[in-house]
Amino acid sequence: MNMLNVNEMAEKAIQKKFRKQIWSKFTKAVNQYELIKEGDVVGVCISGGKDSILMAKLMQMLERYSEYPFKVKYIVMDPGYSQKNRLLIEENTKKLNIPVEIFTSDIFDAVFDIEKSPCYLCARMRRGHLYSFAQSIGCNKIALGHHFDDVIETILMGMLYGSQIQTMMPKLHSTNFDGMELIRPLYLVREESIIAWRDHCGLEFLRCACKFTERNYGDTDVENTSKRKEIKALIAYLKNFNPNVEANIFRSVENVNIDTVIEYKQKGVRHNFLEEY
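The structure corresponding to this sequence follows.
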């Protein structure tokens, strides 16, 4: 299959076969959370994984069909990928007709010898570099490829491991880059739908391609074990007894009753129910 046909198949699958599962959920999130406005210049951040590349294709199609004008720029940061992994990103974006701008950093080397939470540090450093580069090329927003499953897993992780109730927000103002925002257009799209689209199109994407993963597991397709993986397993187990468990976890942070909360924080200030008892 030539590259033109791969791109045509990918777009047709989004428009037809996966319209309800992917395109409708994507546009619902964009509209419901007001992620994109007229005149925006969005830097779509592509890591090379299935989520970010699907997001890039969806944003490309939205820009093409949208009733209000906005611009999209496709950003790839190479934080120290192996030659094989960088080549895979370049080949996939070319197949899907996504014109990327690639810049490099040394983040993988910087976190390689960090023993405690290297993935957390890597993610924070990557985001800072992405904000900076996107702003330098005229963007006022960056888009990340977190999906619905990431959102509900974050809710449970916060409760079970962080002793707090919080969620991954659909959009955020940057605290370090004035005028910049972060948006998550895949916020309502299920991971199983992304996997189905990937397999339908016969595409192969990166998983975690950092040196930390290769050091611990070899240059294989094995995902790094983590608390997020434990949470995935827990949700899958609970789903055996309650098929609505995922939707219920998500709705729990839409239905917070402050009157029944002992303490909560708002804008950095802690409040206790005794204040108004």
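The chain has eleven helices and eight strands.
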